[in-house]
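Attaching the record inline, Q. Sequence:
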Amino acid sequence: MTAEEIFAGESENVEFKSEIPSKSEKYMKTVVAFANGKGGKLIFGVEDGTWAVSGFSKEEVFQKMDAITNAVFDSCEPKITPNIAVQEIDGRAIIIVEIIPGMQRPYYIKGQGIMDGTYIRVAGTTRHAERYRVQELIMEGTNRSFDQLEQGQVVSAEEIAVFCDKLYQHALKLADTDTAREQIQKVGKNQLLSWKLLVGGDGEYHPTNGYLLLAGDRGNFPDAVIQCAVFKGTVRDIFITRKEFSGAIYEQIENAYHFVLQHIDLGSRIEGIARRDYYELPVKTIRELISNAVCHRSYLMPGKIQVALFDDRLEVTSPGMLDNEITIEKMKTGLSKIRNRGIAAAFSYMNVIEAWGSGIPKIFREAKEYALREPELIDMGSDFRINLYRKKAITDQNGVIDPKERDTNDTKVEPNDTNGEIILNILQSDPQTTQKNIGKKLGVSLATVKRAMKELQENGKIRREGSSRSGAWVVVNQEEQQLFQKYAYKGGMD
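Structure, as predicted:
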C-alpha cells in the first residue's frame, strides 16, 4: 500500500491496528468477515483514527508475521491462508495481511462455533452474522439458492397442472403483441423440475421454496409481501394511504405496480393528430424496480419489500445484503448475480424480467430519457434501496437544474387536456404567437394546427383581431361563447 492509501483511512475492506492484540480473537473476527465477504486487508502498525504509522522494528517484524499466520490458520474454520507482506513507510515497517474472498463459506472462529463465530462486514465495520445470514453463507458455499431448497409436503399432478396454467396465463397477460403470445409455450412438470421448483420422481413430487412462493403460500413465508404507501412530503412521517399485497409473488408485483400508477401524475402528449397518455415516471422502470426487488430479495431475512412514494421520489427497498461479488458500480454496468434461480427462471418465462443484467442500466437510461434526476442505488448493509426521482426533484451534481433546461417535452404535456385546450392555453399566454410556433410546441404538423384552430374559430372559442401579420388572437370568454352558440344555432346574428 502507498502512504496515500493509508492516509485515506479505513474502508469496507481495509482495517488498521497499531499493535497485534495478545488475544487473536480481537482481529480474527475481521479475518473471517473478510473471507465471508469481498476480501480485505488488515494493516498492523498503523493507528486507527489518526493513521499515524507506528510500525515495527526490523528485528521483530518477521516474528510477528509468523505469529499472525499461525493464529489465522489455527483459529479459523474452514482454513484460511492469508497473504502476508511487509512494507516500509517513512522508515518504519508495517505488516499487511490480505484475506481473499473464500469459496467455502461460512468462515468462522473455531472456538466460538459456526452460529456464534461467523462475522461479516457491514458499512466498514465487522459485525456478528445473524442466523439468516449464516444460512445464506452456507448456501453460497454449496452453490445453492434458497428458492431451490426442497420442502417436505407432496403436490399432486392436478395441483402441478393448475400451477403451470397460472404461469402460462400470466405470461399471456404480459405479452405485448399477438405474435409474442403465440410464441409462448405452456410449461409442465419437467420444466419445473429443470428450474428446481419441483424435486422428486416416480410419481411423487415435492415443492421447493420457490414453488411455494410462486403459488402464494404465505404460511411458510410471512414476510413475503409488498408494503406500499404514499407519504406526504419527502420523509416517512405522515402517510396518505397504504396497502399490503400478499399471495403469489408475481401477482404482488402487478398489484404494487398498479398502486404506484394510481398515485403518480398522468398527463398527455400530442403525437401527430392523436393524444397519448404519459405517466410522469417511466412505467417500465416502475415495473422493473418492483420485479427486481421480488426476484433478488433475501427470503431468509425477516423484512418486507417496501414501495414508498414521496413528493420527490419513488423508493423501493428490498431485504438482503448485496452479493459479495456485486458492487453498485458493477450493477450500473449491467453485472447481475441471481439470488433466487428458480424464481428468476419462472419470471423470465413470464416476461416479468426481460434479460439478465439489463435492468439497472435500463432504469438509468429511461430516467435520462424522461429528463429525471439520476436514480440512486443505496447499499444499506442489510437492505438494498433504489430511489427513482420525480420531475419536481430534478437536479444535477451541482444543484437544481434551471427549468428552462428541462426536456422540451415538458411543453407538450398537459394533464387531461385535449388538442384544442392546449392551443387555448398557449394563445392566452402568447396572443401574437404563430401557428407554426404552436405546431413546434405541440410537436405536430402545421396542417394539424390549422385544422384545430379553424374548429376553435367555428365554435366561437377564438377570434382574430388585426391583420395576419400584426394582429393577435383573442380567446373568447364564456359569455361571448354562449352568445355565439345561441345565435349561430338560430342561423346568424341580426
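The CA atoms of residues 77 and 271 lie 65 Å apart. The radius of gyration is 31 Å.

More tomorrow.
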